[in-house]
Write a structure and sequence with these properties.
Arc Repressor Mutant, subunit A, elongated, 195 residues, mainly alpha, Rna Polymerase Sigma Factor, Chain: A
């Protein structure tokens, strides 16, 4: 008799095998275990919580459909996050194309609001810093920006991120360090220019 899916001692690999045999409760347990990290990973690429939740749902549906193709060469979580990442990038690209056709991305009404700080002065300082960092992040090449954002999320190991992005782990670590170095240098340069 297979172990009950809600048993925490049941591994992902065991749940995958049960799900392959048609046990939807086993796949439901996998969804429960990984839902939060899937949404956070999708949010790195999409930017909005709503879009990330849609991507997460699509990723789980896709994983269910492709479950027979999961070879177990990596952990289930890594395989699932790779599916999530690819779908999030596809959605982001699609959204950007639609957005560019309908509105100007420079329009202040369509920017993410900044959470107010303690005082009006603090709010201005925070808004200025957020704008600087966002501008600098957008200026980074995608191959540096995406690993940095994934690493900042803290949900994946470098090995998992390397699989998701299809690069060697050492290359990924270098890209994160290089992105951080460039951001620090650019912020220092901006601060120096303001003095």
């Amino acid at each position: 008799m297979p172990p009950f899916p809600s048993n925490p001692s049941v591994t992902d690999a065991e749940l995958v095998e049960q799900a392959r045999l048609g046990d939807t409760a086993a796949f439901g347990e996998l969804v429960q275990r990984h839902q939060a990290v899937v949404v956070r990973t999708a949010r790195v690429a999409c930017g909005s919580r709503e879009e990330a939740e849609d991507v997460a749902q699509e990723a789980f549906v896709s994983a269910w459909r492709k479950l027979d193709g999961f070879r177990g060469e990596s952990q289930f979580k890594t395989w699932l996050l790779t599916i999530t990442w690819r779908q999030a990038l596809d959605r982001r690209e699609s959204l950007w194309r639609r957005l560019r056709r309908t509105i100007s991305t420079d329009d202040e009404r369509y920017r993410e609001p900044v959470v107010p700080a303690r005082s009006a002065e603090d709010t201005l300082v925070d808004e200025a810093l957020v704008k600087k960092v966002r501008t600098l992040l957008r200026g980074l090449p995608a191959k540096l920006r995406e690993p940095l954002l994934l690493a900042a999320g803290g949900d994946c190991t470098y090995e998992e991120m390397a699989v998701m992005l299809g690069v060697p782990s050492g290359t990924l670590k270098w890209r994160v360090m290089e992105a951080r170095r460039r951001l620090k240098a650019a912020l220092a340069e901006m601060d120096e220019a303001m003095r």
